[in-house]
Design a protein that fits this description.
The structure is a single chain. It contains 14 helices and 8 strands. The chain has about 400 residues and is of the alpha/beta class. The strands form 2 sheets. The chain has a 5-stranded parallel beta sheet with strand order 3-2-4-7-8. Strands 1-6-5 form a 3-stranded mixed beta sheet, with helices on one face. A hairpin with a 6-residue loop joins β5 and β6 (about 220-225). The longest helix has about 30 residues, at about 1-30. The radius of gyration is 24 Å and the shape is globular. The protein starts with a helix and ends in a 14-residue tail after the last helix.
Length: about 400
């Protein structure tokens, strides 16, 4: 009888603690919307307000960025393509007359960038200038998977919603009990408890697709966040497609990062060593054809190696087992570019442009301030007119 009573009390305790959390998380999941609904809502809001918006996309920004690209086409003639390493690049960093939309996406490979550029060259001739990242640190120029064609026409919400998988009851239940969800619930409840208007804040989190609009710290922009992540931080995408990275931590121990990167089982060592630094020639054959098409259209192709945290590339070049592979990558890249009119840039040693470790999120994600320094130097070197700091243009 004593054991039975203990189990009953234990069950009651669980119901009083876990069950309310599950119910609240269920409400959050139901009301925050799907990736499709949030992407369309965020895009429509940004088109109307030109503000900064965050939408949780579970690792894929493709739908949101495609919607924004199509809305921006009448105003732009330049795109930057690649992974999240290029997300901070904004329109104010470009030469005069280069009106940019930043189409970079999380995890987008060189093959994906080539496919996107090929579509745009064929279907959107008003885009003249293409900037594409050669992200060797992420293994992209070495990959051999086939390049599949893409369709960047504006998708319709009803069709996308019909194609979106709908989670089962059990999968929803598992999600409500997951550690990330419980962490986010705690953060939401903390925000409500600290809010001067707790009922209003509760409504924003639990009963709305997105937050209310709010003023960003720059004093100029308005923000709106969809889903429950990164509320109130203006951490998201600007009207020109660039990312703010506003509430992500910065590097504070660069030496530890460099030491970890030099070991032979690091992601950087893997990228360099599995082909000994040899670029995939098929990728560069496609880039040659792409450059020819862009040139015929009166445009420019620029390929760049993204910046790494200060000291990292120099350390890799001093590591005997990695140095030869990295030098081979750079040598093959320059040899290919020598026979083309492609504009090339190597920003790998970011310290040469004045960047410091505190301008990085990690080893290979530079922030906006670092990129500003880099492009200030680069456009001077190539002789193109640009807006020197403080940058006068904000989001085309």
């Amino acid at each position: 009888m004593m054991h039975k009573r203990y189990l009953l009390w234990l069950l009651l305790l669980c119901c009083l603690t876990l069950l309310p959390a599950i119910v609240l998380n269920w409400i959050l999941l139901t009301n925050e919307g799907s990736v499709v609904s949030m992407s369309f809502a965020a895009s429509n809001w940004q088109q109307r307000t030109h503000g900064i918006t965050y939408t949780p996309t579970m690792g894929s920004n493709t739908l949101f960025k495609t919607l924004r690209l199509n809305d921006r086409l009448p105003d732009i003639n330049t795109v930057i393509l690649g992974s999240s390493t290029g997300m901070p690049v904004d329109s104010a960093m470009m030469p005069h007359e280069w009106r940019l939309y930043n189409f970079t996406q999380s995890g987008s490979s060189l093959g994906a960038s080539i496919a996107q550029a090929e579509y745009l060259v064929s279907h959107v001739p008003q885009i003249k200038h293409y900037i594409i990242a050669i992200d060797w640190a992420l293994d992209f120029p070495y990959q051999t998977d086939p390049i599949l064609p893409v369709d960047l026409a504006r998708p319709t919400e009803s069709l996308m919603a019909a194609q979106e998988p709908h989670p089962s009851f059990l999968s929803m239940l598992r999600e409500t009990m997951s550690y990330p969800r419980m962490t986010k619930l705690r953060q939401a409840l903390t925000a409500i408890a600290k809010s001067p208007y707790p009922l209003k804040t509760f409504h924003e989190y639990f009963l709305q697709l997105g937050s209310d609009e709010y003023a960003c710290p720059d004093g100029q922009s308005v923000g709106k966040d969809f889903g429950i992540y990164n509320r109130g931080a203006c951490n998201g995408f600007r009207y020109d497609g660039s990312a703010t990275f506003s509430d992500y931590p910065r590097v504070d121990d660069v030496n530890r990062l460099i030491i970890d990167a030099l070991v032979l089982d690091s992601k950087y060592a893997h990228a360099l060593l599995h082909t000994r630094g040899a670029l995939n020639p098929e990728r560069f054959d496609r880039l040659t054809a792409l450059d020819q098409a862009i040139t015929r259209n009166g445009g420019t192709l620029m390929l760049y190696m993204p910046p790494l945290v200060p000291g990292l590339e120099r350390a890799l070049l001093e590591q005997p087992q990695l140095s030869a592979a990295l030098q081979r990558t750079k040598r093959e890249f320059l040899a290919w570019a020598k026979n083309t009119p492609v504009m090339t840039a190597d920003f790998g040693q970011s310290e040469k442009f004045g960047c410091v470790p505190g301008e990085f999120l990690d080893e290979h994600h530079a922030t906006q301030s670092c990129y500003r320094k880099i492009f200030t130097v680069f456009w001077k070197q190539v002789g193109l007119p640009y807006d020197s700091p403080p940058f006068q243009r904000h989001g085309n």
